[in-house]
Amino acid sequence: MSVSKRKAARKPMRGIQREFFGSSDRAERKIQSALVELDKVASDMERRWGVDRLRELVSPELRERFDETLDRLNAAVGLSDVGGVEKHAAAMGRGWLALEKAAKAAGARELDGKHWEAALPDGRVLCVTETRENAYKVSQDRPGCVVLSVPEIAALFAIWDGKGLVEEALAVFPGAEIVEVRERGELNDDIPF
Predict the structure, then answer these.
(1) What is the spatial distance between Cα 8 and Cα 3, in angstroms, rounded to a whole number?
(2) H/E element holding 144?
(3) What contacts 64, CB < 8 A, 6 or more positions away?
(4) Burial call 89-106: b when 16+ CB within 10 Å, e when fewer
């Protein structure tokens, strides 16, 4: 009597095995390619509309559909599901276009990059924008500059001049101009006039 051994059913790969041996290089390249193409669309939209701004300009229903598609894409990436990644990345690309169309229909405009510039004492350039969203666009257009929005400057001013000294000085000396700010020295500093 002979006894034959049955092969045990192969278990799905999990953990580190799956990470190293779970998918082929070709599959990984296809996933990466789909994500690269999606990233081109997303980067363009964020450059023109601001990071996370576009989805805030549309209806809650469209925003929810966009977020659900992103969740599906992330799940497919986590599973290394080539077909799922390709499908949901393409849907995300269409989703970005739908967000843009809806935002424009609602009267929203792309960021314009308007800003004011001033030289800093150390040679860098300060760019000031009206909104934080425009600060992002200017930081992309003017790398190497210090870019701040008016609300950020207001927050810094509140910290720096918490006692109202600048406001008080400008009230006492109407038309005065702030030309230099120094660390607080001794109380008997020379007065420059």
Answers:
(1) 15
(2) none
(3) none
(4) bebbbebbeebbebbeee
- For residues 87 and 92, what is the distance between their CA atoms, to the nearest angstrom? 9
Tokens read off for 158: 């509140």
Q: What integer pLDDT is reported at residue 186 of this predicted model?
A: 59
CA distances 154 to 112, 116, 158, Å, are 22, 16, 6
Q: Is a pLDDT exceeding 80 seen at residue 54?
A: yes
How many other CB atoms sit within 10 Å of the CB of residue 72?
16
d(CA 161, CA 159): 6
pLDDT value at residue 95: 97
Instruction: Tell me how far apart the alpha carbons of residues 63 and 106 are, in angstroms, rounded to a whole number.
Output: 14
As a whole number of angstroms, the distance between CA 99 and CA 101 comes to 6
Contact assessment for residue 126 and residue 146, using Cβ atoms and an 8 Å cutoff: yes
Q: List, for residues 56-78, the tens digit of each pLDDT value.
A: 999 999 999 999 999 999 999 99
Closest CA to 145 of 129, 161, 130, 158: 129
Buried b (16+ CB within 10 A) or exposed e, 183-192: eeeeeeeeee
Mean pLDDT over each residue of the chain, to the nearest integer: 83
Q: Which residue has the tokens 């997303």?
A: 42
